[in-house]
Protein 1
Amino acid sequence: MSTVRDSLRRLQVPDLAIRGWRPSMSGEALLALVCAYFVLACNGTFWQAVARAGTSPRVRIVLAVAVFALHACVLAPFAWRAATRPVLAALLVLTACANWYASRYAVLFDVDMLRNILHTDMAESRELLSPGLLVHVAVAGGLPAALVLWTRVRIPSLRQDLRRRALFAIAMLALALVALAIGSQGVFSLMRNDHALRHRITPGNVLVSTVRALSQEERGPAGPRETVAADARRIVGAAGPRRPRVLVLVVGETVRADHWGLNGYARQTTPELARRDVVNFPDVTACGTSTEVSLPCMFSILGREHYDRVAIRHQENLLDVLARTGVAVAWRDNQSGCKGVCDAIGMQAMQPAQAPALCTGNRCLDAILLAGLRERIEAADDDVLIVLHPLGNHGPNYFERYPAAFEHYRPTCRHGDPGRCSREQIVNAYDNAIGYTDAVLGELIDLLGAQHGHDAAMLYVSDHGESLGEYGLFLHGAPLAIAPRQQLQVPMTLWLSPAVTGSAGIDRDCLERIAGDAYSHDNLFDTVLGFFDVQTRDYRPARDILHPCQRASAAARA
């Protein structure tokens, strides 16, 4: 072996070639190369948005320089010395993932979206994985990451490295400031006109939003939550004796108003509800565009009008107030949990063992929510509120939300990746899922009508809507300031048994007349309080949907 080495040296072959060549550079040079890759190869949706705005070449150059320099400046303290290569390699893989979802689903990585991601369960996460994602991440993230890990980073003494890294960070910050100063008018005008643009800059969007989401994450109050409606009490019998009442509140998942058959959609996606004596509300606005926001908001006295995420988390909600007045409250879940709403009362997570025929693996069809429901109601001898939280139309796997018998519209998208399906296929699968929700609601109404121990009602309202390709958007979770109506307008439908209509003094004709007015999730809190005859100074009659159409019971609460 030594003879071979000597022969190679006599031929003047460098030692690098003898040992196996690997590129070698400073940490600053490697960081700059990776940041340039981010700008040029990982921000397609950002540059497309910039191009749609009709910006000049000068503004685009300024943006490229500023985005490059700001990333380099922010990453400089972290991608340093021995951590340089692993940090940059991990960022490349993360950026490839974010780029995939941004380009395929038009996802904007703001704080709420990162909070959704952090709180997503494994079942939902698995549905978002696809072969296309794995290939994209391997090529756009894995290969560059492997090159970074292969590269040798020259590490000088600590003192010298500190000085050099500080100068590098300062130089990058200065470069960004100079670039923005040169193109300030065009850049800031662009940012003002497109508030979502900053959420498209990858990986800065993911890093900043993750830090903000984690820093805002509350561990919960040390003691009891702030009491809401401390004086709340039920005034049962004030307007005459009545039987116990049961309200089943179905918090739908990801159903948009314009695909709800009762709202006049071209397809009759709600034939079962149409055959029953229901009141439909066609103009209802959600509190947010994600379950993480809407669920706590709609059960809070603050609502969207006074929305404060931290305050909502530290306050009692509608379920707590009702439980304090003696209403039996239960939460049945076929989804990813109640997002803290039912923490005080507990949650019954539906399990495959309760109805194996309705389940595949750990996912069950929503009819499982009705298993044992009648027995649960009949076992109560007082007022009851039961919240059902179905899987509904949770995407992207709409085709898994209904049994084969409900595939009325074909062809359907059979993938979690919308890029592999036409819009027609996606919409067909989505509408089929609504059809199954309609069937479950029809069965629920029949179940409530068949029990005789309680005066019954059912209220269905979706938590938020869904984008199905409009404006290039898919799924939901868009920032509220720019959210399309498809993600905010939701269906709401009410069924009242004749018994509860009589005992509550509700004028059905009046209710039909006002059903077309504009409502929102903010109406839920007071409407449910009114339904159970709860009296409190915090009750707001103007927000109780039933109040204008009630007689004696409304007067008793006044």
Protein 2
Amino acid sequence: MTDQATSARGADLRNKRDETIAEGRDAALKFKVTPDKMAAFISAYTPAEGNGRPLSLELMQAELERSGIGGELDHDGAMFALKRAGEGKSILNVALVRAQYPQNAEDGQIITDADLDFPVLPGMEFGKLSKATPASPGKNLDGEAIPADDTHTPTPITLADAEICNCILNPESGRLIAETYGLVKIEEQQVRIEPLIKVSEDLMKVSTKLYPHDCFGCRYDLSALEPTLQSMGLSRPLQHVAGQTAIKKARETGAAQKVVIITGTEPVPGRDGYFEYDREDISTSSIGTAGEDDRIDFKDRGVHPMVSPGDIIGKIHPPVEGKAGEDVYGRLTPPPGGNPLEIKTGEHVAPLPDGITYKATSTGIVQFQDNILAVKDVLETKGDVDYSTGNIKLEKGSVHVNGSIREGFTVEVPDHIVVSDSIEGASVTAGGDIEVKGGLVMSGKGLIKAEGVITAQFASNARIECGEEIIIKHEMSNCLIRCKGSVSAIGGKGIIQGGVVTSRVGIEANEIGSEIGVKTIVSITAKQKVNNKLLKERDDLRERLLKINSAIGQGDNESILRSTPAAKQEQMKQILLMRGRIKIKLKEIRKQLSQELNDYYKSLEKLSIRVHRKVHPGVEIKIGGKTVQIKKPTPRMKFRFDAEERTIIATKF
């Protein structure tokens, strides 16, 4: 009986439970709020039973409200939970509600997926401008306000002025479009493109930097630059070989390569009018000598010929016009030269009726200087300068030595010295030119010094100082040479080997150094003009600034004023004003000195060391304080200073 009663009660309970299930149970959620009250996650989930409401967005919202959790349902999180629940997967730890985080102030910026360390190309869309976003507070799930960390007034980002911007903003897409080949720069919240194509000051070359790829990582070739070149009005043809070689190297090394991609054609200088001797025995050594480019160098005058009364000295040749060049814009550049020579007659010289031929009216030595043709007084020796003559020192006139000047002897004259043979270890000084038909065989003794031009067939172990130009036809060997003008060795063998050769203008030779690597130093030593007045002003201002800072400290004006007693504030303001003016003046002086240094470096670009045949290992090239050491034999090379890179560059010519 008891067992039957128990079975009846169990059956009733099962029937009631089945009835409950049949009626249904809604899906249920429990939540856990993060300690910072910024998000709520699902901590427990009971699926719906029977006819109960299944999990849905509405049920989730209702469960959140039932749990007393503020904030709005996170739609993405809720959809993710529904998807997983429908797949029979766990939805625990899914965030269903998130608080509102504070918004920090953000300046406007470029939104882009481009690497702006690499160039943009014309027509390329490289990003969009985002608006500046002001700061705003957040709110946690309890409704408490959360202040922003950065509340500065945001600065919008804009395009730079049209003159320097080189890009436009598409009004429809809002995207930035490049108008030139260059690098994107953002300065003071202004966007511009810095062009990578530059035209030299003389308008004779166009250079650029070529990168391994553009800002989107895509390779490009020289043709991609053509729209920019066309917009710049550059009409000369591209140097494709040089450009593609630079691109190849950039891709191999990963580093940008600077290269000249367009060159103009230099004008061919005309031939100026020049004076030529009439006598056949000296016709190969005229006062005006034509060089390789057919220009006449009036310093290269050969010998000073001896003349007698009535002798024809020579005549003027008319100028020859040059050929115009073309700059990178296709504009013609006029050629230099082609100017007529005008001669003034000096002592003992008279023109003939034709107006271009001149004769001597007295015995003497011909001098042609500053376009004045004259016959000067001359002391002529019968033979060598040796014990038979003793030293020769004149107060006026010139000397013609019909032989050699022997070792240990001295010749000093105010005008010119002509030597028929050689100078051997003597001390020879001239206020004008020194011309030697033979050589300078000095054996490390004596000194050759002239204010004018020095010419000889060769020079060995010689110490030479020259005010104008040195011309050695065949060889300079182990010489110490200092020359204010140019040094040349191109008439014959034209070799410079061993020793130190310096010039303020330029050095030219057929060959420098030797196959056995003899150390040879050739140097251009053009000195920078020192602005002593500006340097003294800078030093005085520095001393004044040091005294002020020593007295009041180096802090900013506001902190110094705060620490100054009220009674002395006005006086301190005057001191600070003076300090500010000194700093501004020092900045101006530094800028001017820097410009003068740049001008000096630019002046060095006009000077060069030219080697017509070969420069050997062991040679050191020095220009502008920089040195290049030659490691291997190199043919036909021109060395010059590059002001922009501040280094020596070598080019074939």
Protein 3
Amino acid sequence: MVRKEDKKSSERSYRPGLNRRAFLALTGAATGLGIVPSSVAADYQAVTDVPGFSCEKPQFTCGREVRAADGMVSSVDPIASAVAATILREGGNAVDAAIALQYVLTVTQPHGSGIGGGGFMVIYDAETGTVDIVNSRERASRNAEVDQFLDEDGTVIPFAQRIQLGEAMGVPGTVRGLETARELYGTRPRQRLIEPAIRLARKGFTVDAFLASQIAAHTGKFNDAALETFTDDDGTLFEVGDTMTNPDLADTLRLIRRDGAEAFYEGPIAEDMAATIREHAREPERVVDEEDLAVYDVTLDEPVRENWYGYELVSQPPPSSGGAIVYYILKLFELLGGEEYGIRSPEKYHILAEAQSVAWADRNAFFGDPEFVDVPLEGLLSEAYLAERADLIEIGSTVYDLPGWATSSQPGSPRDFQSMGAPASAELSGATTHFSVVDRWGNAVSYTSTIEQFMGSGKMVPGRGFLINNQLTDFSATPEGPNRVEPRKRPLSSMSPSMVLADGEPILTAGSPGGVRIITATAHAILHSIVYDLDPLDAIVEPSVFTNNLRPVHYETGVPDDARAQTAEWGLVWGNVETHGNVQVIEIGDELIGAADPTRDGQAVGFDRAGGRRHGRGR
């Protein structure tokens, strides 16, 4: 990435065959149906924990949805967004800002992300026009065994117990991933990018409502080190508005600042981490140890890149199913002419629900770590195969009426359409959150990171200040299928950090946390933005529906009663009202528009070099 003082034109050309505003006008897909956008503007969240930053400064615009010319950040945490925006102001690029943001999330959002976990970073390089992925997914120990989640009688260990075991803790990848991204694309020294997180851990930050709720909800799985970190000097759990410090984490980050990733994967930190994992293992010889940590490395992946409505959808390949299944669902929608139907019509919800059922059958049957499993990705994503799968879906009936589909949807035969195999990963020597960053030169990052469950395993490394993931629970608990446990294998994921490109340049970044609902949340946000032409915040809050290869269709508030009644007549079985994900979106056009999902306390922050205040929703 090179800093380009002559900023590229941000105009984007759209596919002539899909005039979005024209078909919206004809079909009444949005306002023509009398639907009022469901987003509600709220005051921006003041940030007082970041030196040199204020939402009142003319260079910055803060809120749920904001506009700017020279940089944009959208994340679940206003403090982290502010830190990333200051890096952009100083001349750092999108990767620099993303690295600083992720280190801060280790401090301020330890329930969902951190250096004890892993993730996927999708990077668009404006200079070369290329998209690369730094894959820092956690790995199983070299000593892992296929039956490690079964008890002595061969019965699956209950999930509530399994998530706290040392056997559930994978080799963390985040630190190696951040250092790899910085070495390949960064322009700022590690010391500058990690310093804001050190300062926050040392001097303290304001606890938000979601962190306070997660601390209270997960005390039952905390070890002593975690309980000590999440309580004040009087032994009281931190609450909303309290100032929380984490001096142990500050010391850990200082060592990484000085010595890089080696400080984390070798020496005292690694020894302490391995000891903590062993302490909580049923069979200590099976779990991650010092050697597993020392040999860990990331991979550089070729993204999933597929055409959709004349655009290019770019996302994470296996070992995440997310990018492929997001595309699979959206492509079925296109093949079935879903754009002909209104945004809250029965037909739209029916197509999306049925497409998810069909897609999830193939996900469960074929996806796993491509270093261990022959994933027929080319066949799965070929238009001929997807057209065959789309033919199973009809308005007025359900796929569950098909022979053999009564209780669960069934996979197809994608290997019949396979010729070249799945995209390769190139090894490079050497509960989840999502955020997006775009800089003044057009570089973009879409990054989803995780420690798996909220608060991960609940086990904090004593004296080190960070929680260890329980990512290996993403493996199949039973010793069968493409996602079974194997030594050094990476578990299947649903993370879906995505970009939409037009003429080779990004026009949208999107992604979400949410476990298996990540795919649904991301796909709906992209669909609502691109096909239904909603602004980013409205695209996020427009209600979605979720299902997998089983029948109930769960839905968000706002799905009309009459749409559910009509689709029930066609065979859909409706389940519970719930919230799907926490989406962060940046739209890239004549200006940058960032939006943060209002289901948590996130915030978008825009940057303007000229210091002219832009307008935004939520200000």
Protein 4
Amino acid sequence: MSGISGLLNNALTGLQAAQSALQVTGNNIANVNTPGYSRETSVQSTLTPSLYGGQYLGNGTQIDAITRSYNSYLQSQVWSTTATASGASTVNTQLQSIVNLLAGTNAGLSTSINQFFASGVAQVAANPSDIPSRQNLISQSQALAQSVQSSAQQLQNASDGVNQQLGQSVTAINSLTQQIAQLNVQINSMSGAGSTPNSMLDQRDQLITQLSSQVGITVLAQDGNQVNVFTGNGQVLVAGAQSFDLKTTPNAYDPSQLEVAYAANGAVLSQGLQGGTLGGLLQFRSQVLQPAQNALGRIADGLASAMNSQQAQGLDLNGQFGAAMFQSGPVQVLGNAGNTGNAVISGTVVDANALTTADYRLNFDGSAWTATNLSTGQAATLSTSVSGATTTLNFDGVQLNVSGAQAGNSFEVLPTRYGALNFQSTLTDPTKIAAASPYVSSAGQMQSGSLVNTNLGNLTLSSGQYSATSGAGATLITGASVPTALQITMTSGGTSGSVGFQVTQPGSATVLATGSLSLGGSGQVLSIPYANNPPGGYWNVTLAGSTAVSGDTFTLSAASGGNGGNAQAMAALQTAKTLGQGSTSLEGAYSQLVSQVATQGNQAQSALSAATSVAAQATAAQQSVSGVNLDEEATNLIQYQQAYQAAAKAIQVGNSLFTSLLQAVQ
């Protein structure tokens, strides 16, 4: 157009362009606090001019597009760092309760262990025949059992909480992926001719951000402005218009442990899921919670085994071997849900000293068994024996009895997981505390119920100590067992070389064993077997000296209630290295657990701080491109207002010219 009409047309396009730009600016200002909103910009261009009278005259302007300020790389960084920060936050939140439970300054279990040994066992060792002291030990053992159970129950509650939160996270993920798929459809249908539904793109990106806080994801752009969303390990969640729902499903071995799987086919996805609430929960369970449960269970198993064995070595106030003081939880053996046949399998702890804090995978190929340590991935040393239809398997302190297994069967063995959860104090009668050693040694022999010592040599006979084996070169007394009274009589004498001796029961001529002693040496060990198991093993006494006289005698008699030798041995168990193949004590194992959890707690806090900082930086970088700057928008508002007013003035001028022209031709 040319002339007055051209002026009016150009001014009108300018007016419309300024009006659109003002609308875009107003929309930016209105959404300054809208989560996920990307600043919009109106893209303006000149219309193609027209040739009039040999000159090209402009035809005004137009709005080509309303674009959003967006950088795909920066947005992907926001999603990635959000997942990492959310996962770190979840681990840290879950872990701090475990830190407070096990490593806190007021941790009840540590206090209970110390009080049990220092106030309970030590008092009985000092006053073995005192009933109040014995009753106090019973009370301390019950308090210790309650404390162990309470700690284990809190860990179990945390495990139940993980299951519940996994379900909540999966529900949130399904809702988000369904909305993302729906938006894919709407965006695809509304995209075309160079226009894009910016608000829907922002809404979808915000949903993906929320999804990344639930689980680590990867986003791939597709045709039609659609996206596909995958988990960090490549499992599809959204493919165009289709979303793939998840569900929680019982673990193939342990139904009490939930896993994440596809709702449609049940394929388990848990392994490899990282980031977000979901990944954080799975990481916490596998790296913190279950190892803590196993470590606490091993302490409970070790305490029960050591105390019960020590009880069985000594004598109570009734002259009987001590009854078990504690009972720990069973070895848990769980069959795979896909196992065929009707295998029967059970397990027990046979050597607490050999226990690890690991779980195991047990596989049967039809002829051979293998056991894999799930913490290290290494095969455990496995011994196998068969008796009839039952196969007995031994590895790392655990014994399993299996029958009816089929080729391809697999099992998960949790040796210590429930050791603490089911830990109990079983001794209620204070007279049954076996404070006394099985024997006291005396020089001389019993005559008419009294000990008469007429020995002339300098030989001595120790009261002895327990040993699992008789030892090389020991004189084994097979005709009697602990605590049968015994008499050792020298059958020859001298001051050098070897002299002989024989072992009988007091008042009996039946010889139970004979042996020889090298004078001036380290002595000769006599081993008396225990008939009861536990403890099994032997009570070893040592005959030693440099001068022997034929006819000299020594008497081993059952200790009385005033003897506290076995109680002293019980007290020593607090620091005795009875766990980890003799590498650590009960006290040391608990210190290791506390140290491990405390270190994990510090690492979790550091990881959270770092992840939060990185996420904030990524968000700031993304917002520097996509965020609304009110100062900039205020400037734009004035700019477009002035453009609008100028265009309106041009229309006014054109109208005035047109009016003048009409008046001139009237």
